[in-house]
Amino acid sequence: MLFNSFEFIFGFLPASLLIFYAIGSLDRKLATLWLAVCSIFFYACWNYRMTALLLASVAFNYLCAFLIHRCSENRYLQNAILTFGILVDLGVLIFYKYLSALIFFLEENGVVTAGTKFEILLPLGISFFTFTQIGFLIDVRQRVAKYRGPVSYVAFVTFFPHLIAGPILHNREILPQFEDPRMGRFSAENIALGLSYFAIGLMKKILIADNLAGIADNGFAHPHALDLFGAWGVTLAYTFQLYFDFSGYSDMAIALARMFGIIFPANFNSPYKATSIIDFWQRWHMTLTRYLMLYVYNPLAIRVARRRAARYPMAQAGPESSAGFTQLVVFPTMVAMGLAGVWHGAGLQFLIFGVMHGSFLCINHAWRIFGPRRRKKGAVKDVGKNPIVIGLKFVLTFLAVLAGWILFRAASLSDAVAVINAMVGGNGLRLPELPQSLPAVWRASWLPLELAALFLALWLLPNTQELFAKYHPILGKVRPAWAVVCWRPNWAWAFVTIVLWVAAIMGLTAPTRFLYFQF
Amino acid sequence: MNEQDIILQLNTIVRNIFDDDSIVLTADTTAEDIDGWDSMKHINIVVAAEGQFGVRFLTSEIELLRNVGDFVTLISRKIK
Asked: How many helices (DSSP H) and strands (DSSP E) are in chain A?
């Protein structure tokens, strides 16, 4: 059952909301229990056998958290349980996500001959619920997460708006909301905001992302047939498709949670407006970046920093020397981004995607440390405000991001190289060989105009949370958009919402999956 | 050691790390107020503070800090 399907929009959602508020007026805890029940039903609609796996994972991690909490006097025992828990979680993840790819790889290279075809169905959302729960275990061990009752925990992990594709929630920001006395109390504002917010997400998915999908799919299916313009068109189409698909999904998730009175963290903040690659990762899939910072980058960096601080005086312990830079920046960044790459899938191109972005980030950090000093003591920094400099930084960042997406989307490394080759003119301006489907799509469409319009829209318009800034749409601060367009529960916005809903529903012929469901 | 002393010592650390004597920390200062205070610098500051005050922080405690005031509260709780 997808967010963009009739069953969900007209069946599951209204029914679960109505019963939630009916129960919520009686008892808060029962309302939380209802959320857990709905969410498990939501998952079971996809595959009831895999629901057993989800429940087993939740039960196992809850048990680990309980034991870690109970053994608070014995640090070693706590660490042993934590390690065991993480290993089991990762083991399950690797089994479902990487094993079939690994066996295929070994067979291809003649290392083993399995004989029978080995295929494992990837459980939806497994990367997401595994990560969420590992984070919880670590936090219970570090005593920043309070041990909770089972109902809140199950509702937190399985809550259907985030279960399949995030945002990756942090227990500290969500569990207290489930236990707030206001939980389950009806608020017209939450519903109104949720409906408008959802409409924007639905519009992004159905009217924009799904329209671009055909062009991207076609182009990446025949990478050797692309000419210069074709390769750029296809790459840009995919760049926009991925953003509108995933940010549309995230908008819908935020909207759905809000209808139940729960506020989610932001997952996107206009990533294509970024003017550096560091900036980009603070705006793209923000909850993944945050997760990796929290549980991978920082623990590694802090260990290295402590070792250096013990060995050198403070002035030399920092990253300003080549050894310091390698140990403090390159090492944790490459590990974290390598993991970020592999997290997306088993293909070699995902690893290279991660390593490539890791390298970009290191170059970016190196520039900040070793490059020309932007500000001498007391002097005002004005280079950073020069529009030409900003423009150059923007273009460079965008090109780096495009290169990453080609690896991300291409079926294999050689396909990715073929697309890049075409983009730099390796296939010339004309199509060398024409597969039947490609030129028709390409020539008949308004693609160049559509891409230009999307580009301008992304660059000039406020993002979803900025539109809703006055009503606390996400956790944390949001800079509001221009007052004229800011969302308010008034007739004008009611009209816009209805128009968006009608347009999206009319476009909803056959619901398509979200790109991030495969991760 | 009271909170004012802690802020003063932190100020010295931060000035050293940024090589900038014009920095003046207050309880309300956040990372955004100081140019170049990124996640990496943050770790340097935290580790330098560990040495200075003879304490050890958990990574999760560092993540919870919103401003210098939070950091001072954390340090004073640890050295007690």
From this structure: 26, 0
Q: Which of these is catalytic: A170, A222, A344, A365?
A: A344
Choose the closest CB to B16 out of A302, A306, A314: A314
CATH for B62: 1.10.1200.10
| Termini Cα distance of chain A | 17
Give chain B positions within 8 Å (CB) of A294.
59-60, 63
* Domain boundaries along the sequence of chain A: 6-186, 192-518
List alpha helices for A260-382, DSSP H: 277-281, 286-292, 298-311, 314-317, 322-325, 331-343, 348-370
Helices A228-259/A13-24 angle, 10° precision: 30
CA dihedral (A490, A496, A502, A504) positive or negative: negative
Judge: B39–A315 Cβ closer than 8 Å, yes or no. no
**Residue A43 tokens, joined:** 């998952």
DSSP strands (E only) in A63-176: none
Q: Which of A294, A305, A377 sits opposite B44 (nearest CB)?
A: A305
Contact assignment for B43 to A298 by CB distance below 8 Å? yes
CA–CA separation, A218 and A441 (whole Å): 8
% of residues, chain A, pLDDT over 90 = 39
Which whole-number Å values give the CA distances from A359 to A281, A327, A399, in the listed order? 13, 14, 14
Chain B residues with CB inside 8 Å of A318's CB?
Answer: 17, 44
Q: What is the C-alpha to C-alpha distance for residues B3 and B22, in angstroms, rounded to an integer? A: 21
Total number of domains in chain B: 1
Give the residue among A220, A280, A217, A210 at the shortest CA–CA distance from A244.
Answer: A210
| Distance between A193 CA and the closest CA of chain B, angstroms | 28
Q: A145: which DSSP letter? A: S
Beta carbons of A219 and A230 less than 8 angstroms apart? yes
Please give the share of chain A, as a percent, with pLDDT higher than 70.
91
**Are the C-beta atoms of residues A106 and A112 closer than 8 Å to each other?**
yes
Is A306–B50 a contact, with Cβ atoms under 8 angstroms apart? Answer: yes
Closest residue in B to A135 (Cα–Cα): B60
Q: Which residue among A302, A375, A378 places its CB closest to the CB of B35?
A: A375
- Note the pLDDT tens digit of each residue in A97-115: 888 777 777 777 777 666 5
**In the predicted model, is pLDDT for residue A183 greater than 90?**
no
Chain A hits for B47, CB-CB cut-off 8 Å, are 302, 305-306, 309, 317
Q: Which residue of B has its CA nearest to A279?
A: B38
A305: distance to nearest CA of chain B, Å?
7
From its phi and psi, is residue A184 left (phi > 0), alpha (psi between -120 and 50) or beta? left
